[in-house]
Design brief:
The structure holds 2 protein chains of 2 kinds.
Chain A lengths: L1 H9 L3 H12 L2 H34 L1 H16 L2 H12 L3 H25 L3 H9 L4 H38 L4 H11 L3 H29 L10
Helix pairs in contact in A: 2-10, 3-4, 3-6, 3-8, 3-9, 4-6, 5-6, 6-8, 8-9, 8-10, 9-10
Chain B lengths: L1 E10 L8 E11 L4 E5 L6 H9 L6 E6 L2 E2 L7 E4 L11 H5 L1 H5 L4 H14 L15 H14 L4 E5 L7 H17 L3 E6 L2 H7 L2 E6 L4 E7 L14 H18 L1
Parallel strand pairs in B: 3-8, 3-9, 6-7, 7-8
Antiparallel strand pairs in B: 1-2, 1-4, 4-5, 9-10
Helix pairs in contact in B: 4-5, 7-8
Classes of the chains: A mainly alpha, B alpha/beta.
Amino acid sequence: MLAHRLDSLLLPSCTETMGALARLVDTAELWEAVWISNQAMVLGFLLAAIVGVPLGLLMGRWRRAERYVDPYLNILLVTPKSALIPIVIMATGLGLLSRLLVVFISAIVVITVNVRTGLRMVDPAWVEMAQSFGATEGQLWRKVFLRGGLPGILTGFRLGLARAVSGMITVELLLVAVGIGRLILDFEGMFDAPSLYATVLVVVAEAVILLQGCRWLERWMAPWAGEGVAR
Amino acid sequence: MIELRGCRKAFPGRDGQAPVVVLDGVDLTIRAQEFVCLLGPSGCGKTTLLKAIAGLVPLDEGEIRIDGRSVTGPGNDCAMVFQDFALLPWADVLSNVAFGLELRGVPRATREQRAQELLAAVGLGGFERHRPRQLSGGMQQRVGLARALAVDPKILLMDEPFGAVDAQTRRLLQEDLLALLDRTRKTVVFVTHSMAEALRLGDRVVLMTSRPGRVRDTIEVGLPRPRPPDIEKHPRFVELKDYLWQQLREMNA
């Protein structure tokens, strides 16, 4: 009897979860939470892309830029994001800005690193060929680096998006209880495992749809690349 | 006419080692519409010399003049054909051939028409919409050759262009190249490490030594043109090949 109760608490059955999901998608509560969470996610991700892509391009093109930026990037790479969250919140409070910043921190490293890798995949022979026809630096960027680096840039977007989603949930669970994270904490408090799982399912579904969208974009925009960029 | 005077180029050594002198005191005059083969072992600076003529590698000392004008950077006189083809994998064959013209600001319709003509000339009509990776190595180099010819350069610089294809394809490419050049006379500087290739194609063979790269000898080939497929049996060919062999052996001794 007890064992059965414990079971359903930790691992609700599929039917229970689906039932809860059906109830949940009918409530305004869920969509409001999704909306609030995604504000931070989308803005944080865009900011990370706006900063990370040029940074990665710069590092990929000029070794000197890489020497300056690389140490900071490595620090950001090895520091657990959960350790940075309190600092961000102390600095910026409990509002949208702090959540946005956590998402930004989560996403920027993979974006930068993958854009840099993407630019490294640009064959020096293509650059030399373009130069031999008298290409200007602007032409090199438009017709060689950005085209050849596109697979890496898109991979950076995809992995950055995955990090952004997890960053968004982490900060909401750990410190700023709003949005989907708040919903998860609420259901946890109520021992409502089916609803809890249903909420997680919603997050996973959103992430999967976004990542698939990115994959589709990669295949559509850079079909020539095939496999080979770090993932 | 290409004049090279006292050309010297050194690359910085790795990890504090002494700089590597790849070219030292290279003097060479290449006449207009001459086919010159630069022959030498790997690392003798023949590719560097070619890139210097193209304006891609600045020299430390000396000067290169094309028709009297000093080379300071890539210009419109030369077009290069690369060993590893250097085709853009995202662009189709037509756009690859038109790429040089695109960089020089030629309108799309004009450059694509020109690219079409050259594809036909190198025997690749009908492959316009293929991507480079769908083609064999030999076909890819035909695309590379068409791209260079599309800008109608006075000088064709070829960096071991047929080194990455199999022996049979190589022979066919060599014959097609000579046929093409019969129709559009160009000055050609052709880098190779194959003696047979140098003799089969060139008017003159420039033999280079390695480290530092210097001109050891220049040989007037003097074989009849058009070169027949069995040119290798020509007594003069055999004689020159023996001579080149002897020179290479002495260089290694």
